[in-house]
# Entry
Amino acid sequence: MLEAINLTKRYEGATALDGLNLKIEPGEVFCLLGANGAGKTTTINLFLDFVQPTSGSAKINGLEVRQHPIETKKYIAYIPEQVMLYRNLSGLENLDYFSGLAGTAHTPAQLIDLFSRVGLSPSVSHNRVSTYSKGMRQKVGIAIALAKNAKALLLDEPTSGLDPKASSEFSELLRTMSAGNVAVLMATHDLFRAKESGSRVGIMKQGRLVDQLKTENLNHTDLERIYLEHMHD
Amino acid sequence: MLWRIARKEFTELVRDGRFRWSAVFVLLLLMASVGMGWKNYREVSAQHRTAQEAMRAFWLNQGEKSPHSAAHYGLYAFKPRTPLSLVDQGVDAFTGVSVWLEAHKQNEFKFRPAQDATAVRRFGELTAAMALQLLMPLLIILLTFSSLAGEREQGVLRQLLSLGVRKRVLALGKALGVAGALGAILVPATVLGVMALALTDDTGALAGSWTRMALMGFLYLTYFAVFIVVSLAVSAQAASSRMALLILLGFWIVNGLLAPKAVTDIAKRLYPTPSAFAFATDVQKALANGVDGHNPRDKRNEALKVQTLKQYGVSRIEDLPVNFAGIALQADEEYGNEVFDRAYGTLWQTYTNQNAAYQLAGLVAPVLSVRALSMGLAGTDFEQHSHFASAAESYRRMLVKKMNDHMIDNAGKQDFAYMVNAEVWKTVPTFEYTLPDVRWVLGNQITSVLLIGVWAIAGIVALVVASNRIRTD
# Structure
């Protein structure tokens, strides 16, 4: 579903991403781990066509992102570190607006059902988003992805700043989505969450994917050790 | 998708307390200025009608007197107020709307700028038009400066674009949403204004103003559209919403405050007008000494006597079959008319040149084009003032000639002792003035029409280009 082929991005004198090769199948959660500036967000930006690759290509559902910038977005949903919504609109209105822009129309009842599916009480659906916590906004982000029926999720530090309960709920939602054959690419600093949520983790350093591991063969301690070894190289 | 974006933008704006307060403020100001304009229009129109009727009655009831005395008695002509003058009083307040018509003189009410008034006064004062020309653009700027820049800063833009929304569709949708929110202010003000006019108009003037009214509405909508698209284009390209606000406020200040004054001063420097004193002195000199300074009145009179005697084949004034005093008066009048035509023609041409320069400056500040067109459609611009002045002057000349001709044909040897009564006064028709049609107005303002069109097209192109180049980081 998501594929990077020799994907490279260079800015003036600096390589943000260096020859990334990666394939994420439906139902798989791939967590990109790495320090700040390792190239995680650049990878996501390249899949979103927010930046142009210097070389190589990013593909979504077999389509080259650069050549099909609008069509490829039909298959994906993007959840940033902070899902930003319109403060003067209610949660339901935001969900209706964003899902409508994605090309999927829903009845109010369906939208409230989506609210429930992501763990938000229907009673808050009519409250303005300015009253929502960050965790609630992140869940609205997931609801938008569900409403869109996205085939792939691009997540950029989605649990950063969430309390453990909210973070756990978010991971649970991800597992539910991947079980529905959604491919997930998540950039994160959170080793624990990566192990819990991911089926595979990739460790990035200075723009290069230096290691890929299957989480089923790892425990938390192993992952932390391997990660730190790479960081100290 | 476009309408969904527009609807969201509209909903979000009308729920924003800042918009509500500023909208209420602008709406109140607009309604107050329209209300004051309407009151002024009603009062002045009624006064004009009363005065015009009174003048006619005075003329008809002036009693027995010499026709030439009657020409001196004269009368006032009043420029009719248009319903749209309640929106834009234009130059009327400064040039005056009435003129005293009498023999020998082309009175100077319409040349106040030559009487050392500041030139900027000819280009308007604070009215509903000013609120539309200055306050609405400011409101638009405050509503739109962070529309795209702010969403980029907050990260909403990335989320929107990740959904596959085309950048230009997003920008145009926002423009429509802002336009809708502005409609919430403008529609009530317009409806109330038109209703007030329709309910109280008893002259039929409103019925003849629909085309002008529709064009004025279209003009202001185009002007607001220019500000919306320019503001969004700046918001799309500015490094931050704060920078967008600074740039747009700078543009607003230049457009609305600096350019009108600066351009007026530049136009006056390019095409200087004489002072009232110098102008009056030149006219008096020309009347006394001839246009070339070598043809004094007594010399002209002598030549006229010789020519008249020769024309009638007699050698003495007493033998003429017509009244020579009447002939001399009309000849002097016609000579005076030549002098006035030259002097005022030059002065008016100077004003026309100044106005042309002013209109051309609409290329850098759209308010200049809008101001010129708004005054034109309201019937209160310089060109229509000049049109009225010409009509009044033609009427004056007709009236004086009628009196002089009557004297020539009927006074015999009595000269100024010849008396006539109301039967003669009735032969002078009432002064009727009809505003020029809207094509004439637009023809005079063609530069402004073209430039506001250029601004609108350039603004849309700028918005499409700027939004396509908008950064997401």
User: Anything to note?
Assistant: Strands of chain B lie at 75-78, 98-102, 105-106. The two ends of chain B are 24 Å apart (CA to CA).
